[in-house]
Design a protein that fits this description.
A 4-stranded antiparallel beta sheet has the order 3-2-5-6, with no helix packed on it. Helix content is 27%, strand content 29%. The chain has 3 domains: 65-154, Immunoglobulins (Immunoglobulin-like, Sandwich); 158-237, Immunoglobulins (Immunoglobulin-like); 244-352, 2-Layer Sandwich (60s Ribosomal Protein L30, Chain: A). By secondary structure, the protein is of the alpha+beta class.
Length: 353
């Protein structure tokens, strides 16, 4: 009887201690060990969290005792309302002397897009700046409570890239360029060159419109209005006293009047020239090299001129504005001694009427 009671007592003790009352398999042992490890990890996390909370509480008591409550500054994209990491925040007390080092000059972090600082109670101003954005408005505020929060918004800049080109040749032009906003405040003053005529300016797409002015030697002054920053085509300068020009980069099948697909930029250039000058009449003059007979070259040059006119008419230009003339091989601009020279003589010329 005594042994039975002792056995029952032992089983109860083992049950209370959480030990299994039977032999565990290896898988059960592993599961048991894993469970114990997880419980220890969770207990460590709770202990760490409790320690951190106590530390934060002590730091808060110290800040309040020292009269330096904590301030958080957050920065946002005004357009998307998303947080902006890497934004430099400048903060200074209102009564600071000019040139005095700011109380805070630091970039917002990547996690919460904020900066923090323990500051004396008082009046401060704060502003933020970031590459690709207009600076935020300067905010003046009174800081007096612990974990005070300030939010700043920045508006993204619209980058406008455009070129300065010749309306006849599409080549780059050296010009003086000015860009003004709708209140006629100049936002860009620069000079393009004849090699790299691509210009860039940062604009605010909230402004109703911008005005572009350009001047260049031997060109008419250019004036245009930008209503949509993302769709602006660029500055196209019209040369003075031009009577004719060669339509470069127009290609035909060998010995035929068929225009090759690679000629599309040249055809688009001619169409644009005629479209923006509704009263301008032209004569398309075709020239060939000296390969072949005079008669065949004359017929070929006329046919190629007719083909260019057909394309312009198909795109909406009135046929009454376009004359054609085939000159065959009669007017070479260089001797027909080499392939390169013959290529130069095979050309389409546009004469202004």
């Amino acid at each position: 009887m005594r042994h039975t009671l002792l056995l029952i007592f032992s089983l109860i003790c083992l049950s209370l201690l959480g030990e299994p009352l039977y032999a565990m398999t290896p898988a059960q042992k592993r599961e048991r060990a894993k469970e114990i490890k997880m419980r220890k990890r969770e207990a460590a996390k709770r202990k760490a969290a409790k320690k951190k909370a106590a530390k934060l509480k002590a730091a808060k008591r110290k800040r309040i005792k020292d009269g330096k409550p904590l301030l958080y500054v957050y920065t946002y994209d005004l357009k998307t309302e998303e947080l902006l990491p890497g934004t430099y925040v400048t903060l200074q007390d209102v009564n600071a002397r000019p040139g005095k080092k700011p109380k805070l000059y630091k970039a917002t972090d990547t996690k919460r897009s904020r900066v923090s600082k323990g500051l004396q109670v008082g009046d401060y101003w704060v502003a933020a700046a970031r590459l690709g954005y207009f600076p935020s408005d300067t905010l003046v505020f009174k800081h007096k409570e612990d974990e005070d929060t300030v939010r700043l918004s920045l508006y993204p800049q619209a980058r406008l890239t455009f070129t300065v080109t010749d309306s006849l040749t599409s080549r780059t032009v050296a010009a003086n360029v000015n860009v003004y906003d709708s209140n006629h405040h100049r936002v860009l003053q620069t000079t393009s060159d004849s090699v790299h005529a691509t210009l860039a300016v940062l604009l605010d797409d909230r402004v109703p419109f911008y005005t572009v002015e350009a001047t260049a030697t031997n060109y008419y002054p250019f004036l245009d209005t930008i209503f949509n920053v993302t769709e602006y085509q660029g500055v196209i300068m019209s040369p003075k006293e031009i009577k004719s020009f060669v339509l470069h980069n127009i290609y035909f099948a060998t010995g035929k009047t068929t225009i090759l697909d690679s000629s599309e930029p040249a055809l688009a250039e001619l169409y644009q020239f005629l479209a923006i000058r509704p009263n301008q009449r032209i004569r398309i003059v075709g020239h060939t090299d000296n390969i072949g007979s005079d008669r065949s070259n004359q017929i070929l040059s006329e046919g190629r001129c007719e083909e260019v006119r057909r394309v312009m008419v198909e795109r909406g230009i009135s046929p009454d504005r376009i004359e054609i003339e085939g000159r065959g091989e009669r007017d070479p601009i260089v001797p027909n001694d080499t392939d390169d020279q013959r290529q130069m003589n095979r050309r389409v010329e546009i004469v202004l009427l």
